[in-house]
Amino acid sequence: MTDDESSKYFTKDSDPFDTESMFANAYSFLGIPFSRQVEKTDLAILGIPYDLATTGRAGTRHGPQAVRIASANLRWEEKRWPWNFDVRKRINAIDYGDLEFGPGESEEMIEGVIRHTGQFYQEGAKTLVIGGDHFITLPLLRSVHQHYGKVALVHFDAHTDTYTVGAKYDHGSMFYHAPREGLVDPAHSIQLGIRTEYDPDDHEFMVLSGAELNDQPTIDIIDAIKQRVGSLPVYLTFDIDCLDPAYAPGTGTPVVGGISTDKALKIIRGLSGINIVAADVVEVAPSYDHAEITALAGATLLLELMYLIGSNTLPKE
């Protein structure tokens, strides 16, 4: 490759989506250039390589890297089927890279998440985060709350993550703490795909179980979500173990009986119109993956969320 040929990929003013290669420079999400430019950004994609709060199999610290590499398979489409616009032309998105913190320094991670993401919320931008274990959602909610107040939570998972017996840093207790910190409004929040133990008589959130998601028409699920969140700003979190292990084997706490990737994508597409201010996809553990099945699922969900956010954004003139 000559200098002139390579310059279109690396110059400051080049179109970050002008390559369709699925294997060259597959480092950032969808080939979006890494940037820490906060101003004039509509959407920041960032990774949080943290897995010190896992209770089962660790390894999600490598999730951001695996999801970014898998996203190279999605770069060739000018616009994502079946959306009728190219999100890359509608919103200004950057890959902010991974947040850095000292090994074993959970408090440093929490403080860094709030400091870095707060810059974007201050500018009116939104964030898409790649985990990391699910504990990262708690500091992300704290950051969102500082700028948007109490939000509605749309939570895809096999577990409610409302357990009270965990340690201070525990990826199964975030949504026990979040309501008590005033971060989310349980009366306008919903958990989807749950298929592990919880007490429905003493549970703050509306729940649609994995069996219900599999049995109900998608349109009914979408309607239930929209009615639940109403007009509140929404934080959407997707634990990859919401998917059945057949579709996402690479995760720390797989639970059979989940939904398919097709079902998940159809639900997300149907949520156009709700006010999503931030979202994450977490718990991809590539060491347990096979043929990038889980990483590709995570990357595709992130791209779908990117389009969902773009669908609520006015086209650039």
From TrEMBL:
<feature type="binding site">
    <location>
        <position position="157"/>
    </location>
    <ligand>
        <name>Mn(2+)</name>
    </ligand>
</feature>
<comment type="function">
    <text>Catalyzes the formation of putrescine from agmatine.</text>
</comment>
<dbReference type="GO" id="GO:0008783">
    <property type="term" value="F:agmatinase activity"/>
</dbReference>
<feature type="binding site">
    <location>
        <position position="134"/>
    </location>
    <ligand>
        <name>Mn(2+)</name>
    </ligand>
</feature>
<feature type="binding site">
    <location>
        <position position="241"/>
    </location>
    <ligand>
        <name>Mn(2+)</name>
    </ligand>
</feature>
<comment type="similarity">
    <text>Belongs to the arginase family. Agmatinase subfamily.</text>
</comment>
<dbReference type="Pfam" id="PF00491">
    <property type="entry name" value="Arginase"/>
</dbReference>
<keyword id="KW-0661">Putrescine biosynthesis</keyword>
<feature type="binding site">
    <location>
        <position position="159"/>
    </location>
    <ligand>
        <name>Mn(2+)</name>
    </ligand>
</feature>
<keyword id="KW-0479">Metal-binding</keyword>
<dbReference type="InterPro" id="IPR005925">
    <property type="entry name" value="Agmatinase-rel"/>
</dbReference>
<dbReference type="InterPro" id="IPR020855">
    <property type="entry name" value="Ureohydrolase_Mn_BS"/>
</dbReference>
<dbReference type="GO" id="GO:0033389">
    <property type="term" value="P:putrescine biosynthetic process from arginine, via agmatine"/>
</dbReference>
<dbReference type="GO" id="GO:0046872">
    <property type="term" value="F:metal ion binding"/>
</dbReference>
<protein>
    <recommendedName>
        <fullName>Agmatinase</fullName>
        <ecNumber>3.5.3.11</ecNumber>
    </recommendedName>
</protein>
<keyword id="KW-0464">Manganese</keyword>
<feature type="binding site">
    <location>
        <position position="161"/>
    </location>
    <ligand>
        <name>Mn(2+)</name>
    </ligand>
</feature>
<dbReference type="InterPro" id="IPR023696">
    <property type="entry name" value="Ureohydrolase_dom_sf"/>
</dbReference>
<keyword id="KW-0620">Polyamine biosynthesis</keyword>
<dbReference type="InterPro" id="IPR006035">
    <property type="entry name" value="Ureohydrolase"/>
</dbReference>
<keyword id="KW-0745">Spermidine biosynthesis</keyword>
<feature type="binding site">
    <location>
        <position position="239"/>
    </location>
    <ligand>
        <name>Mn(2+)</name>
    </ligand>
</feature>
<dbReference type="GO" id="GO:0008295">
    <property type="term" value="P:spermidine biosynthetic process"/>
</dbReference>
<keyword id="KW-0378">Hydrolase</keyword>
